[in-house]
Design a protein that fits this description.
Number of strands: 10
Protein name: Flagellin N-methylase
Order of helices and strands: EHEEEHEEHHEEEHHHEHHHH
Radius of gyration: 20 Å
Strand content: 15-25%
Helix content: 40-55%
Distance between the termini: 38 Å
Bound molecules: iron/sulfur cluster
Organism: Paraburkholderia panacisoli
Number of helices: 11
Oligomer: single chain
Shape: globular
Largest sheet: 4 strands, antiparallel
Strand order of the largest sheet: 7-1-8-9
Structural class: alpha+beta
């Protein structure tokens, strides 16, 4: 079977049905639009001989495929038996069924002003080796059809960019977006992810009972405060950036909850409960940060203070 897929986005907005995964820098930039949180996901480790199948497309993983997955995991993810992702995400009520940046005409309000890299990389997946991106596209083709979109096509198509062919990403823009998203994920790991992973080791990653509550392919959500508490140590400026971010987020959470209370939907209640928890975590963090530091305490997770400041300010130093 020829594993070639083409893609042409008409900006219909049908896939913008929830907030995207974002970097911490992107969340800081769009602090009044997206509520940030951390998603911890479990991705079972790939094994040689494992079959991956989507419709008529099937791959039996060989040693090179598994090595490619492992290389991505070593630089972008976290290993504890299985592989885990620790990513920053935007949060909203699922009942709203739209990204907060989606305009009523289906356009992205931040397309020209810092659209998240996750959205630029669509429909590819940076956590899958390039040689297997055709399976990602086959799966997303099914999802797009479900959404009523017609943007992914098997084989070549006039007016659509050929993205992958015979195990290679062949479109220059797609290659560039994949590379930038992977670099951004590696930077996230360096700036705060590894420190949060270590901080959660005892209560989560070294606890089989706690880990069992994250199913394969599933994820757990936590407040983004542990990431903030990692980076406040970088410099007084980072600390102030985090305090400003917390203020914006508390105000945004209050606005979102107020809108939800007006909708009066039963299925919004657990989300309101979780958002109140995020708000409480922010208020506790703010109280901790109100205590003045004698001096900047050094760097966050090995990054120099100025690099962390530049990163949070949106000038991503990759
Ligand atoms: S559903 Fe397809 S065409 Fe519509 S915005 Fe998403 S990627 Fe573009
Ligand atoms: S940020 Fe823009 S492109 Fe991304 S999901 Fe939201 S509306 Fe869509």
């Amino acid at each position: 079977m020829v594993n070639a897929f083409s893609f042409a986005c008409s900006a219909c907005g049908k896939c913008c049905n929830s907030p995207p995964a974002m970097t911490l820098a992107e969340l800081f930039r769009h602090r009044d639009l997206f509520i940030g949180y951390i998603a911890i996901g479990r991705m079972p480790r790939k094994r040689t001989g494992e079959r991956l199948r989507v419709g008529p497309y099937e791959s039996v993983l060989d040693a090179a495929d598994v090595a490619a997955f492992d290389t991505l995991a070593d630089t972008l993810l976290y290993r504890v038996g299985d592989t885990f992702s620790i990513t920053a995400q935007g949060y909203d009520y699922p009942s709203v069924a739209r990204c907060p940046a989606l305009e009523d005409d289906g356009r992205c309000a931040i397309h020209l002003h810092g659209k998240p890299l996750t959205c630029e990389v669509v429909p590819l997946d940076p956590l899958v080796p390039d040689t297997l991106q055709h399976l990602v596209l086959a799966a997303r083709n099914q999802s797009a059809a479900y959404l009523g979109a017609d943007c992914i096509h098997e084989g070549e198509r006039d007016g659509a960019a050929l993205l992958v062919r015979q195990g290679r990403v062949v479109d220059a823009n797609a290659k560039d977006a994949l590379e930038r998203r992977r670099k951004a994920l590696a930077k996230e790991r360096e700036v705060w992810g590894q420190a949060v992973f270590e901080a959660l080791r005892k209560e989560l990653f070294d606890s089989p009972a706690a880990l069992a509550r994250i199913p394969a392919g599933g994820f757990r959500t936590i407040s983004i405060v542990p990431a903030l508490l990692t980076i406040v140590a970088a410099s007084a400026r980072c600390r102030q950036l985090c305090v400003d971010y917390i203020d914006s987020q508390i105000a945004l959470i209050d606005r979102c909850i107020a809108h939800a209370l007006l909708r009066r939907r039963l299925d919004d209640r657990p989300i309101t409960h979780e958002l109140r928890g995020f708000g409480d975590a922010y208020r506790r963090a703010k109280a901790v940060l109100a205590v003045p530091l004698a001096a900047a305490t050094g760097s966050a997770a090995g990054s120099t203070p100025c690099a962390v400041e530049a990163y949070l300010s949106g000038a991503i130093c990759l």
